TrEMBL record:
It comes from the Bacteria. The chain crosses the membrane at residues 7-28, 34-54. Keywords: Kinase, Membrane, Phosphoprotein, Transferase, Transmembrane, Transmembrane helix. One of its GO terms (molecular function) is kinase activity. It holds the Pfam family HATPase_c. CDD domains: HATPase. It is an enzyme of class 2 (transferase). Residues 230-448 form the Histidine kinase domain. Its EC number is 2.7.13.3. PANTHER family: HYBRID SIGNAL TRANSDUCTION HISTIDINE KINASE C, TWO-COMPONENT HISTIDINE KINASE. It catalyses: ATP + protein L-histidine = ADP + protein N-phospho-L-histidine. This is histidine kinase.
Amino acid sequence: MKFKSYIGFLLLRFVIIQLVLIGFAYGIYKSSSLIILIAVIALIVLVSELRHFVKRRFRIIDDFFEAVKYRDFSRWFPEDRGPKDIRFLHKGFNEVNRTIKEVNTKSEAQHVYIQKILELVEVGIIAYQLENGKVLWSNKTFSEIIDLPSFKNISFIEKRDPQLFECIFETYYPTPETLSITINRDLQKVLISETLFQIEEESFKLIVLQNIEDTLNKNESEAWKKLLSVMTHEIMNSITPIASLAETLSQQLQLQLENPEKNPVDTKDIFNGIHTIKTRSEGLLKFAKTYRNLNKESKLNLKKINVSDLFSNIKTLMEPSLKSKGIQINFEMQSKRMEIEVDEHLIEQVLINLILNAKDALKEKSKPVISVKARYTDNHKVVVSIMDNGIGIPKDIMEDIFIPFFTNKSTGSGIGLSLSKKIMMLHKGKIKVHSKEGEFTEFALIFK
């Protein structure tokens, strides 16, 4: 037993103290002052030495527990000097410190590993204490989704954006739910789910936030590719009978030229055949022109252009036709030095599409006005907006206007807005719409 020597020394000291006490009693019995004095001195020395003997070991234990209390496991106790029992204590304490440090190292490694994984996922995650709002942990994606810097307490969001705070933190979502939240005047679709958990006596809430708008855009892009593949197939199927009809007419004319008497040709049939080819070819040509741009590779001819030059080109192109319809068009810029890095021809096409849509919405207005404005957002992004005071967009079709082929116009193709959205996606930008029936419609082009 490792503490055998410690117990032996302790018992020995108690025996000696007992003997001294007997001597003290004997001195009183014999009325010997010398014996009494020697016994008292010996007793004081022995008790003091016993106190020091015990206190030394308790002080070592107390130091160890103090280190444990403050989670200081870096202390090293000497194992090669002092009494055997103390060296054994030191060895035991060192072993405990070594084990705890290994456990902490593994725990920290796992924590860092989990943190890195959660930082890489494209899902926003935050955990905070319910009582005081103190953030336990939050990843970078969460800050990116709500477009705010990192924070240590959710009260920061309450001060910056009370509406967003109430939507995300005050409302409880026990099951995943889709929300539309406004981030810097930009409507975002997110999927939110929450759970409550407890650590000891403290309660926490874990919120998971996912921006599903980008996912929807990716899915829409994939749908476009599939759709265009089908369209290409259908075009080829239409061209085949045209080619066949042309070949038949060519053979008939060839035979008629070789032997007019035996192979008379009905000019009416020839005319009808040619007219059919012409009509169908024109339809296919128009179809091809409409969808041609959608099937191009996603390569942009990017260059920095001045927004004022862009507005000047659009004004020259569109103002005459708008004036002939009695429509006033205004151009405004927050700064004449505003620049954007874009494919100029494609962005012009987007602006033309949106202005033409605005023109169609103004047919029933007595004082029709189209306003084209450029401004900076709070995070220095450029936004170009096209606003009209027309009939607005009905709420029941608001979410469908960017879907390919969807239109509520009798002569519309349903391609203009979907093509505009695709062009903005290629620029890594966004197109947003805000409308009120009977009052106005505003399209905003947000550049990265």
